[in-house]
């Protein structure tokens, strides 16, 4: 088997994939396959744990912006692997309570501040959210990047979803009170004693006092936030001096590591339409691009602002074992959510009928299995600090 290196651009492109820069390729003469040909452990040889640690470190180095993801040349064709589109259909009468739900096009949505978030919250979507958490943690090897110290006291998780990140942070930092807020009451009841959840809208006035939080975290909320500068200003007011805010957001448009994806590729068309629908609904879905979130943080008064970019492969074209698994997870997440992602933006934002959406999705599902374009999406990690001086 031969491998090649796909040199990733130093900045995540926001232009259509045909404008992406080309890549350099180098021959990899290794004959071992990261999934199937791992040598047996023998005394005096590298242990499985050491090997896995090395592969984890290599995965982070290859995926980080400016790195080079080594291509598995045996896996760049069409992959007919995982392909499902699970659906949940239900109907019920609604009462005026934050713990009730709304149903639309056979999917369940939040009832509190109905329509603010354009994606479902049913069991299928919750499983997908938990898989996203596992994928990001596998790629980044950590829960956060902001240097919050060993004993933070008050942590806020915006858009907590199923609460899995908040729960793991509560386990990792026993000193902290971790609060997760979301429009949907879908979090578990059995949680660590230092973790709590609240149904709330982060774009409404906050209930907590100023100078309260040591760390504010937000992940996968770019499809929901309408006014980023307002959110940054409000977060800055509620952070203690020296506290940190961190965002972890995917730029949801496919890029090609070698520039081979045509502009009319069905996956590119799909995400362009999602962006159009959300724009019609007042959402800037591409706020992550071109360092815009970091720039907005600086303009709002944050200091020590930093940005890291990791490239998430779509599919199994990466040679590194960890990145191959990350790519499989990410493609599965996108395929399992292909309907959930499309229904709100295309029916609410673009005026499509559900039948038209379903018909369009047929070609998109097939296109996701095309490994030859070396598709990936950038994950932007942006964090900044409130100045130590009084704000």
From TrEMBL:
InterPro entries: SAM-dependent_MTases_sf (IPR029063). The keyword Transferase applies. One of its GO terms (biological process) is methylation. Pfam families: Methyltransf_23. Residues 49-59 have a biased composition (Acidic residues). Residues 1-95 are annotated as: Disordered. Signal peptide: none annotated. GO terms for molecular function: methyltransferase activity. Residues 17-33 have a biased composition (Polar residues). Keywords: Methyltransferase, Transferase. Belongs to the methyltransferase superfamily. LaeA methyltransferase family. This is S-adenosyl-L-methionine-dependent methyltransferase. It comes from Coniochaeta ligniaria NRRL 30616.
